[in-house]
Amino acid sequence: MMHYWTTRRRDVLTGYLFIAPQLGGVVLFVLIPVGLAIWYSLNKWNVFTGKQTFVGGDHYAALASDPQLPSVLLATVVFSGGVVVLNITLGLLIAVLLNRRFRGATFFRTVFFSPVVVSVVAWTLVWGFLLQDNGGINGLLRAIGADGTNWLQHGDTAMLSVIVSQVVRSVGVNMVLFLAALQGVPSELYEAARIDGARSRAVFARITLPLIAPTVLLTAIITVVGALQSFAQIAVLTGGGPELSTTVLVYYVFQQAFEFNDIGYGSTVALMLLSFVMVLTLLQWQLRKRWVFHEQ
Prior knowledge:
Elements lengths: L6 H35 L1 E4 L4 E4 L3 H7 L4 H30 L6 H9 L6 H11 L5 H8 L11 H29 L3 H9 L4 H12 L1 H16 L3 H6 L11 H11 L3 H29 L5
Antiparallel strand pairs: 1-2
Helix pairs in contact: 1-13, 2-13, 3-7, 3-10, 7-10, 10-13, 12-13
């Protein structure tokens, strides 16, 4: 028995024991739910009687002919695109400004990051009150002589409101990541650039941005996945309305599965959402070779 447990085998066993909790979590919370979603998408499930009837690819055929799906996909693209662009751009801008040494920098870092630790539902409820016709935002507009609107009752303003609410709450995460990356850039490179007479814009484009490109890739992946999974903001603020203007894919999954009690079709839409997340993540990972300078 002692001859069996060689040093190599003990090291291998130790490694497996270390990854066992993570591996168990992946199996329990990822692989099993995905497997169940695939099974449900192939069956018609009557939630009242508990009876399941195998229907094969009927749900996938219904997905291809769903008249509401184009509007849902458009809302998903608009919402995700707005959140990703604003979140990354503002996060980087705030990080660059707060990376400088000035009095109160720590205070402003805390202010921008504090919404991240607030409950999503509580944050969204507050924004719901602010965006009402007689809410705080319209009150401020009236104070300066401008007319407001009921932001959540019109398609364009409802989408804009949801995007802004999401960005303001989550931009602090990207800010912290960018701050950590900026503080890791060697100061000697900036000093050499200043001696050579390089302008601030050239320094940022030729030194700062290439060196923080891995962090930009990380924030892009995190922000895209987070935007596609955003549910509470839409559920609390607009309920997917007015009409389908703010019904994104993740909320459409909820509607089909739990409001219309069509678990099979809801699972089919969920699998489509999962495929979108996987494709976008893999695409960004492959594109890293073009814009992350040290990737081969």
